TrEMBL record, chains A, B:
<protein>
    <submittedName>
        <fullName>Long-chain fatty acid--CoA ligase</fullName>
    </submittedName>
</protein>
<dbReference type="GO" id="GO:0016874">
    <property type="term" value="F:ligase activity"/>
</dbReference>
<feature type="domain" description="AMP-dependent synthetase/ligase">
    <location>
        <begin position="35"/>
        <end position="400"/>
    </location>
</feature>
<dbReference type="Pfam" id="PF13193">
    <property type="entry name" value="AMP-binding_C"/>
</dbReference>
<dbReference type="InterPro" id="IPR020845">
    <property type="entry name" value="AMP-binding_CS"/>
</dbReference>
<dbReference type="InterPro" id="IPR050237">
    <property type="entry name" value="ATP-dep_AMP-bd_enzyme"/>
</dbReference>
<dbReference type="InterPro" id="IPR000873">
    <property type="entry name" value="AMP-dep_synth/lig_dom"/>
</dbReference>
<dbReference type="Pfam" id="PF00501">
    <property type="entry name" value="AMP-binding"/>
</dbReference>
<dbReference type="InterPro" id="IPR042099">
    <property type="entry name" value="ANL_N_sf"/>
</dbReference>
<feature type="domain" description="AMP-binding enzyme C-terminal">
    <location>
        <begin position="457"/>
        <end position="531"/>
    </location>
</feature>
<dbReference type="InterPro" id="IPR045851">
    <property type="entry name" value="AMP-bd_C_sf"/>
</dbReference>
<dbReference type="InterPro" id="IPR025110">
    <property type="entry name" value="AMP-bd_C"/>
</dbReference>
<keyword id="KW-0436">Ligase</keyword>
Length: 551, 551
C-alpha cells in the first residue's frame, strides 16, 4: 500500500539551507592566534559556500562526483568546503595532515582528487608531495603562509579569496539522490593500505540528527562548541553538519592546538561544549593546573578517539567540565555510542562514574552484536566478551575501491557475510546496552575456544610494584591454539622473579588465563602515537629474539 | 560515485527492537481509575507485541498491507498495536472516537479495515456501527466493558488477552521497505469527506528522531511523559514511537481524561512532561485552582492542536509547568514547529514570552514558505502574511484514495503543483524562522490583492467594552473582490453605534482594512468544538438574512 507522505532526499544541501535560513545569525569563530578572532555568521558563510561552488564549477571545472580534497585546520573556510563540495554534487575528501608523506600521496592518488584546498600554513607539508600526485589539477590556498614553496609547482595554484570574489552568493543547487557520495575519509590503520570510507548524504543527514538528539551531544543554539577534534578526523565527529541543523555556534581553533592557546580561547570565547581526544585534553589539564584560568562556561566535554582515563575524567569533573565518553571510528561516522548514565542512577555516585567510564549506550540508529571466538553471537550480560559488530545507516558496509570507477570492496575480516561492520574492538555489552571495550580483536589471545584479554593481564601486571611496563601478546601454542606471552619491563633496581609475578597475577585473573611464557625486555616497542606495538613483539618472538622462560 | 555506507531501512520495527533491547526496563503505566495503575515494561510489551502479531496473522489471517484499526484510549495495549501492526507489514488505522457515527462508518469502509481492536468501554459506540461496516471481519476487545452489546454481531468477536495468550513471544519480523505504509489517520475537516493520511515507516522513524532532538521535546529516559493527546490523534504526536527510541516512560490516562483524575495521576505518578490540547489543560487548571495538589514534577507541557491562550500559558508558568507551544496537523505527523525561544533572549522577559506564544520555529526536517494572495512567495520579515506551505519527509504529499487499491489523490487546494502541502493556515514567519499564525486561509478576506486578517479585526473589536463577541467574515464586493463584514454581539445593556466602533477599530488597524458593512447578531454561531462557524454567517449574509448597515 502506498504511503501518502512526501519524499524529500536527506542531503547536506538541506542542512546548509536550514542553517543559513533559520540560524543565519549563529557564528563560526576562527582563532587567529593574536588579535580578534575571525567571526562569520552562518548566513555569511552560506553566501561564500555558493561562491565557492561557482568557483569550483566554473573556474576549476569540477563536475559530477569529482573529488575535492581539503588539507586544512578547523576554520570557517574548511566549513565552507564541507558544504559547497557535497551540495554541488561533488565529493569532499578530507586529508589527515598527521599522516606520513608517502601515505598522503597514496591516498590522494587512490581517491583521484582533482583539487586540493589547503591552508597556507600547511604548504610546507603539501609542496614536497606535489610531484607524486598524479590526478591533482588545482591547488586552492587559504589563509596565512608563505606561498613561495609552491613556485614551479605543476598543478595550477589559486588564492581562495580571489577565486570566490565577485561570484554570485546564491547557487542553483542540484536535487541529489540521498544515497549519493558526499564525503570521504581514509582510515589510518597500522597495517595494510589506508581504507577509504565514503559517506552518503543520507548517512551524514541521519548522523547529524543523532548528534542533536537529547541523549547524544544535546546542544542548542545557546551553545558554543569548541571543535578541537580535527575536521579531517571523521568529519570532526559530525559537528559542522550537526550545528547547521540546530544553530549551535562553532569555535574553531585553526592551527592553535597547543594547551596555552586552547586555554586562552576557552577563557575569552566562553564555549559551553568541547569535543576532543584524550591526549589534547591531558595537555590542557596540565596547562590549567599550572596557570589557572576562568573556564567556567565549559561544562560539557565529549571525549572519544580512545578511552578516557578515569583520572582525567575525575580531574575535569573537579574543574566543572563534565566529560561525556563516546565511542566511534572512521567507519561509524563516528557516533557509535555515547555514555550518558541511565535513569535511576544517583548523580555523582560510584555507579554513575562506572557508567560514564563505559564507552556508552547504543542509540536507535546503531544496532550492535558481539561475535564470540567461534563466530556465535554472545548475550548482553556485561560479562561475555566478543568482537563488536555494528549495523546502521551511518556505518560503513564496504571500503572505496579506488581509481575513478572503483567498486567498493568488502574484506572478510572487516565485514560479516550479512553486511555488519566488524569493528575489531572486543568488549562486553550490559543488559541495558552499555558497551565496555577491553581489547583490540587482534590483541586478544584465542586460547582453546575462549578469549583472554591482553589488556586485563597487562593492567594486572603493571599494578605490581616491581613492574614498570608489561605487554601481553598471543603466541602460537600446539595444544590451545594461542597462549599469552608476558613481556615485562622491570623498574630500576628490581629483579625478575616470574614465579612471584605469576602468583601475583593468580590473585587477579582466572587460572587458565595465567601465562606460561615470560620474558624480560628493556622497553615495550611503541607506535608513532605511543601505543604498545604488539606486532613487533610477536615478530621478535617468532624470530626467536626473545629469551623466554617457561613456567 | 557509490557511497560505501550500509543502507538499513528506517522502520517502526527498528524502533520496537531498540526500545525492547536497550530500554527494556522503561515503563508504560496505564491509569485504571481505582487502585494501582497497571505497569508494563517495554520488554514485556515487546513480548506481547510479538504475540499480537502472531494472533493477527495466524488466527485472524491478516496479510500484506491489510488495515487493522484501533478504537482505543491511550493505554499499553494500544501501544502494542502501534508496533505489532506496522512491524508485521500491515497498516495501523487509528479511529477517532469523537467522530459522529456516520463519519466513523464512512472512514472504516473507505480504509477497508479488516480488523478493529477496541476497548471494552467503547463497545457502546462501536456496536451500533457494525451493520454498516462492509469490510470488517474481526473485532478484538481489550479491557473492561460490557461485551453483551456485541451479541449477534456479524464480525467475529475475540478477547485480546485470550487471542494472544500462549503465542510465541518473538516474531520473525519481515524486512520492510521504509517507504511502505505503516499507519493511517483521517483528518476530521469541517467540509467534505474526511481525508486519509498514510504515514510511511520512513516518515514515522524520522519524525521520532525529530521529537527526540534537543530543541524539540527534548526528553530522556529519566522522564515520564503523560500522554494526554489521544493516540487516535496524529499518533499521539509521535510519542509512542519516540519514547521507544530513547526509553522515555509513558503514563497513559486510558479513559480518565477528566480534570480530577488527571490531577490525581500527576500527583501520584509524578510525570515530568505532558502533551495535550489547550481545552484539556484549561480544565486541569480550574481543578488545580479549586483543589491544589503536588504537581511539582511536571515541569514541561507541550501544547498544540490549537493556539494556547496567553493567560493559560502564564497560569501554568505560575504553577511551574512551562508550556512549550507546538504547531502541526494530521498531515504533518504532526511536528511542524516547536516554540523554544532563540539564543540570547533573556529568560522570563517579555521578549521570551512573545517568542513562546508564536507557533514556533521550523526544524531542519520541515521546509516552509508563505504563499501570498497572488501565489507569490513572501519574505520572512515577520510582517508579510501568506498561506503556510510546508515540505518534508513527515509531511503528506497526497491523500489516500480509498478502497483496496486506491491511488493517492492530490486536490489542488491542498497541494501545490510542486508538491508542497498547503496548510490552510495564514500567518507570518520572522527572519529567524518563527511562525505566527493569524487566520485560517478560508477566513482571510482577500481585498484588492491584499489580505485582511479576520482574527485581527475580531480581537480589536472584542477589546471594546460594549462588545461581547465579534466575528468578521469575507463577503463579495464588486470593486475589491472581497470586503470584511463585521458581525457584533453587544453586551447586555449596550447600544449599537457602528460609527463609534469603526472609530475604535481605526486606532488599531490600517484604514483600508476597516469594514464598511456592519450588523448586530444575538450570538456567533459555533461549531461542535466551540469555534466560530463562519460558514454559517457567510451563508446568512448570502441569503439576505442579516440586516446590514453600510457605513
Amino acid at each position: 500500500m502506498l504511503s501518502t507522505m512526501q519524499d524529500v532526499p536527506l542531503t547536506v544541501t538541506r542542512l546548509l539551507h536550514h542553517g543559513v535560513r533559520v540560524h543565519g545569525t549563529s557564528l563560526i569563530t576562527t582563532w587567529t592566534g593574536e588579535g580578534e578572532p575571525h567571526r562569520r555568521t552562518f548566513a555569511e558563510a552560506g553566501a561564500r559556500v555558493a561562491q565557492l561552488a561557482h568557483a569550483l564549477r566554473d573556474d576549476l571545472g569540477v563536475r559530477d562526483d569529482d573529488r575535492v580534497a581539503t588539507l586544512m585546520w578547523n576554520n570557517a573556510e574548511h566549513v565552507e568546503a564541507y558544504f559547497a563540495v557535497p551540495a554541488m554534487g561533488a565529493v569532499l575528501h578530507t586529508l589527515n595532515l598527521r599522516l606520513p608523506a608517502a601515505q598522503l600521496t597514496w591516498i590522494v592518488n587512490h581517491a583521484a582528487d582533482r583539487v586540493i584546498v589547503v591552508n597556507g600554513s600547511l604548504l610546507p607539508l603539501l609542496a614536497p608531495l606535489l610531484p607524486g600526485l598524479t590526478t591533482v589539477e588545482h591547488i586552492v590556498v587559504s589563509g596565512p603562509g608563505d606561498r613561495s614553496v609552491l613556485e614551479g609547482a605543476r598543478p595550477q595554484v589559486h588564492e581562495y579569496e580571489e577565486l570566490i570574489a565577485g561570484k554570485p552568493t546564491t547557487y542553483d543547487w542540484p536535487e541529489l539522490d540521498e544515497r549519493q557520495a558526499a564525503a570521504m575519509c581514509y582510515t589510518s590503520g597500522t597495517t595494510g593500505d589506508p581504507k577509504g570510507v565514503v559517506y552518503s548524504h543520507r548517512s551524514i543527514y541521519l548522523h547529524s540528527m543523532q548528534v542533536n538528539m537529547t541523549q547524544s551531544m544535546g546542544l542548542t543554539d545557546s551553545d558554543t562548541s569548541l571543535v578541537v577534534v580535527p575536521q579531517f578526523h571523521v568529519n570532526a565527529w559530525g559537528l559542522p553538519h550537526a550545528t547547521f541543523m540546530t544553530g549551535v555556534n562553532m569555535l574553531m581553533p585553526d592551527r592553535f592546538l597547543q594547551p596555552a592557546p586552547l586555554a586562552q580561547m576557552i577563557e575569552s570565547e566562553r564555549p559551553t561544549h568541547a569535543a576532543a581526544v584524550p591526549t589534547i585534553w591531558q595537555g590542557l589539564l596540565a596547562e590549567l593546573t599550572a596557570r589557572p584560568r576562568d573556564v567556567s562556561t565549559l561544562t560539557q566535554v565529549t571525549i572519544g578517539g580512545s578511552a578516557c582515563p578515569p583520572s582525567l575524567m575525575k580531574a575535569f569533573d573537579d574543574l566543572g567540565m563534565r566529560v561525556c565518553h563516546a565511542w566511534g571510528m572512521t567507519e561509524t561516522s563516528p557516533l557509535g555510542t555515547v555514555s550518558r548514565p541511565p535513569a535511576g542512577v544517583e548523580p555523582d555516585s560510584e555507579e554513575e562514574f562506572a557508567y560514564r567510564l563505559t564507552q556508552g549506550r547504543f542509540p536507535a540508529g546503531v544496532e550492535a552484536r558481539l561475535s564470540g571466538p567461534g563466530g556465535e553471537h554472545l548475550p548482553w550480560d556485561g560479562k561475555s566478551a566478543g568482537e563488536l559488530e555494528v549495523r546502521g545507516n551511518w556505518i560503513a558496509g564496504a571500503y572505496y575501491g579506488g581509481g575513478t570507477d572503483g567498486q567498493p570492496h568488502r574484506p572478510a575480516d572487516k565485514f560479516s557475510e550479512d553486511g555488519w561492520l566488524k569493528t575489531g574492538d572486543v568488549g562486553t555489552i550490559s543488559p541495558d546496552g552499555y558497551l565496555t571495550l577491553t581489547d583490540r580483536a587482534k590483541d586478544v589471545i584465542k586460547s582453546g575456544g575462549e578469549w583472554i584479554s591482553s589488556v586485563d593481564l597487562e593492567n594486572a601486571l603493571m599494578s605490581h610494584p616491581d613492574v614498570a611496563e608489561a605487554a601481553v601478546v598471543a603466541v602460537p601454542d600446539d595444544k590451545w591454539g594461542e597462549r599469552p606471552l608476558a613481556t615485562v619491563v622491570l623498574k630500576e633496581g628490581a629483579s625478575a622473579d616470574f614465579e612471584v609475578l605469576r602468583a601475583f597475577l593468580a590473585e587477579k585473573v582466572a587460572k587458565w588465563q595465567l601465562p606460561e611464557r615470560w620474558t624480560i625486555i628493556s622497553a615495550v616497542p611503541k607506535t608513532s602515537v605511543g601505543k604498545f606495538d604488539k606486532k613487533v613483539l610477536r615478530k621478535q618472538y617468532a624470530d626467536g629474539e626473545l629469551a623466554v622462560t617457561q613456567l
